[in-house]
Write a structure and sequence with these properties.
single chain, eight-stranded mixed beta sheet, 8 strands, 41% helix
Length: 266
């Protein structure tokens, strides 16, 4: 079991509205903590106080490397419908480098166990969703095994969120259950800080200690090294290249048709 991760896959800056550090401060902290890379995953615009809906294209002006740290740009999209609807447009999700999909109770009223499970399953159908965030949250009860099996089958990632072990009431037992299910079903995980302050970046010892205690296979941790993470990203690129013509093309044509009908007064 690694004693540290080399890529933090879940970090926020002041752009998310309720975080406290800048991108440069986070990158500097990542370097101090021995990381090789981090993912910038600002909250989608349904989160109160977060950035604009065009957050993803705005990130294109940012450097690929900062303070000696490779920065992968993406979002933490909010699931805003029990049908798996996300608050980030499809074309933007396809153009970003890494995407998390999460349920936050300030963006949607969570459903019951079955409804939340269905929301996660439908979010996983989006080719550009890479990881489900903090499914252990007590506020979003779901059928863990169903969700974990679906993520494994789709080649997606289940987050082991270090913040859950620190701030989410009752989450340790729930995280233990999820880790056991991921091991049983060969579901890959990413151990993330969910940093909202620079010193949190890369700080995931409680989560790694738990995985070690539960004898979780190291090879299932996609962010254990930059090489392992880039291997997943290569797999991701193939998935998106295959899905883009039908998934994104259809949606663009629908939007064009709607605009044409509007212009024609239909």
């Amino acid at each position: 079991m690694p004693t540290a991760i080399k890529v933090d896959t879940h970090t926020h800056t002041v752009i998310s509205g309720h975080a406290w550090s800048t991108l440069r401060e986070n990158a500097a902290a990542a370097k101090r903590h021995g990381l090789d890379a981090m993912c910038l995953t600002e909250h989608g615009h349904a989160m109160p106080g977060s950035g604009p809906f065009f957050l993803v294209p705005a990130q294109r002006m940012l450097p690929a490397e900062l303070e000696g740290i490779r920065v992968f740009y993406g979002v933490e999209a909010n699931i805003v419908g029990m049908d798996g609807t996300l608050d980030i447009e499809d074309r933007m999700l396809f153009s970003s480098e890494w995407n998390i999909a999460s349920i936050h109770d300030v963006c949607i009223t969570p459903g019951n166990v079955d409804e939340n499970t269905e929301a996660y399953l439908k979010a996983l159908r989006h080719p550009a969703v890479d990881m489900l965030g903090h499914i252990d949250d007590l506020k979003t009860p779901n059928h863990f095994e169903t969700v974990v099996k679906a993520a494994a089958a789709a080649g997606r990632i289940i987050e082991i969120n270090n913040n859950s072990l620190l701030i989410r009431k009752g989450s340790r037992e729930r995280v233990e259950e999820i880790v056991g299910l991921c091991r049983r079903h060969d579901a890959r995980v990413a151990v993330s800080s969910d940093a909202h302050f620079d010193e949190m970046v890369g700080s995931v010892k409680p989560a790694l200690d738990l995985l070690d205690l539960l004898n979780f296979p190291e090879e299932l941790i996609v962010n254990r090294t930059l090489t392992a993470f880039e291997k997943y990203l290569s797999e991701r690129k193939s998935r998106l290249d295959t899905a883009r013509p039908s998934f994104l093309g259809d949606r663009r044509s629908v939007r064009r048709m709607a605009k044409d009908m509007q212009k024609a007064g239909v």
